[in-house]
Amino acid sequence: MQKSPSVSFQPFPLASSAEWSKEKLLPLFAAERTLEIGDEGLRSESAAGSQLLRWWFVESVDEADGHVAIFPAAGSIFLIPKAAVKPDVLKPFLSELRERLRPVAGR
Predict the structure, then answer these.
(1) What pLDDT, on a 0 to 100 scale, did the predictor assign at position 37?
(2) What pTM value is reported for the model?
(3) How far is CA 58 from CA 30, 38, 43, 51, 86, in A?
(4) Rounded to an integer, what distance in angstroms lies between the CA atom of residue 95 and that of residue 91?
């Protein structure tokens, strides 16, 4: 059986998040996260737990200079720093993700 495409990343580098630790937000925002593509949807896993986002809840994927943004419905965002994921892992992941979103886009 072929392994599902996934990426693991740390959304914000710990070194630049020193101010957040004062508010005890660092674990919430800077914890390592894994996104895995599956038939039912996009699974998000972190130290806080696991969540399955069904494909109809994932609205779009955008790329900017140094980041990829995945927008689930209801105003949330997965922000993936490109520097945190090897290009040979990120490119196939994004390709598969966009392919999965294409049939749902005509909702």
Answers:
(1) 93
(2) 0.71
(3) 22, 13, 11, 13, 23
(4) 6
Q: How confident is the model at residue 10 (pLDDT cuts 50, 70, 90)?
A: low
Q: Which two tokens stand for residue 89?
A: 């892992």
Assigned CATH class of 6-104: mainly beta
Which alpha helices (H) appear in 1-107, and where do they start and end? 18-22, 26-30, 87-101
Q: Are 71 and 59 in contact (CB under 8 A)?
A: yes
16 Cβ contact list (under 8 Å, min separation 6): none
Each domain of the chain, given as residue ranges in start order, spans 6-104
Burial class of residue 87, CB neighbours in 10 A (0-12, 13-18, 19+): exposed
How far apart CA 9 and CA 85 sit, in angstroms, is 6
